[in-house]
Structure formats: C-alpha cells, structure tokens
Amino acid sequence: xxxxxxxxxxxxxxxxxxxxxxxxxxxxxxxxxxxxxxxxxxxxxxxxxxxxxxxxxxxxxxxxxxxxxxxxxxxxxxxxxxxxxxxxxxxxxxxxxxxxxxxx
Length: 104
Fold this sequence. Notes:
Layout: E1 2-4, E2 11-13, H1 27-41
C-alpha cells in the first residue's frame, strides 16, 4: 500500500479499488484498515478540486495520486480521454519491487 515515488522519493499510499486484500490480515480487519486509510486520502484537505474552464487539460501522476470524479456536473456533458503511459514497477519502502499476487 505504500510505494516510493521513483523521482521524488516520497512515500505515497496506493489504494482505491485496486486493493483486494492485505497479506496476513483477515478480510474484515484488512477492509477496516483500507477504509481508514482511504478515508484519510479522500478528506477534503488532502484533495484537489479542479474548477473546469473551456480548454482546460488536467494531467496527474498516478504514481502519487488517486483520481476520483464526483458526479457534480449536473446535466453537463462530460468527456474523458485517458492515456496511460507504461511506467515503472512500484518499489516498496524496503526496496522490494512490486509483484502481482493472486489467490488460486
């Protein structure tokens, strides 16, 4: 859940809908911990709200941010074009490279 940004060296929480469990924690406790941390990340003082104007383009670094688009645009048309650039393999705070883990 914590990764080191490859350029800044900052430690960041990587959560959102990608978390499916925490190794070594029972499901209930893992979900509670993720909920607490997710609640921290989404507190207003830890977020940026963009006030869109015509011609705006927003770019963010998904290695250190979590995107959340609230449905606050009423009946306005909303267009999203997403580009994902192949990036680095996340590194943990102890220097280990991230690896895909799945349950059989």
